[in-house]
Write a sequence for this structure.
């Protein structure tokens, strides 16, 4: 079977897009070329018959944990949730502009721009063929969008959490700072927790371990990487 007709390895996925991955080479905000590329990949995956849920971060606009000491952490985290909603709106608009039906569900009450999140609504939208974008993280401070991705992935019965970042997998240490950093192909949840590897925050990893929900970390900036992951190719790092 050629690459163009290879079947998907997953029925339903939870895609975690970091806010930073939407910046491209920019210092801030959303790079429109990167957004268009991500949307094209998502459309190709949907065309393979895969149901897609997406949690998007807000680090390209505001990161609550970076405001420590300047304001209360809870306030900073709510600001970060609003940043995720800005990215979610941009993603929804771009998807619908490319013929992909998308629903935005928010963990915070913002009825004029998004429906309130509920598991029942999310499942109904997925089964109707819509890409579901989960905005505002978990809706509570002190939790990251990584934890939101693990939580939503478990709630919707996803087969896998795909963490799309600017880095092509999990390394033993920061590959930007250390040339001898080693990239792992496969890790266990326990290895990630014990070695405190920078895959997702520890709460997110522990939840995935409890739910037996595998996580694959890969670079969304590599052309075709998302589709290769969906087809079961060994892209990035698998945590299971």
């Amino acid at each position: 079977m050629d690459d163009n007709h290879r079947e998907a390895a997953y029925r339903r996925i939870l895609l975690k897009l970091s806010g930073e991955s939407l910046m491209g080479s920019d210092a801030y905000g959303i790079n429109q070329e990167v957004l268009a590329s991500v949307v094209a990949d998502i459309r190709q995956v949907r065309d393979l018959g895969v149901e897609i849920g997406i949690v998007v971060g807000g680090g390209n606009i505001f990161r609550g944990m970076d405001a420590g000491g300047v304001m209360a952490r809870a306030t900073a985290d709510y600001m970060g949730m609003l940043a995720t909603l800005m990215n979610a709106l941009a993603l929804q608009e771009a998807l619908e502009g490319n013929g992909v039906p998308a629903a935005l569900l928010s963990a915070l009450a913002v009825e004029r721009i998004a429906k309130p999140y509920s598991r029942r609504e999310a499942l109904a939208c997925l089964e109707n063929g819509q890409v579901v974008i989960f905005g505002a993280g978990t809706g509570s401070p002190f939790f990251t969008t990584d934890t939101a991705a693990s939580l939503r992935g478990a709630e919707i019965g996803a087969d896998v959490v795909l963490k799309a970042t600017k880095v092509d997998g999990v390394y033993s240490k920061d590959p930007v700072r250390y040339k001898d950093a080693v990239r792992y192909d496969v890790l266990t949840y326990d290895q990630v927790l014990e070695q405190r590897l920078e895959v997702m925050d520890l709460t997110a990893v522990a939840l995935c371990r409890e739910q037996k929900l595998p996580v694959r970390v890969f670079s969304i900036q590599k052309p075709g990487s998302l589709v290769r992951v969906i087809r079961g190719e060994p892209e990035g790092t698998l945590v299971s």
Remarks:
- The two ends are 28 Å apart (CA to CA).
- The chain has seven helices and eleven strands.
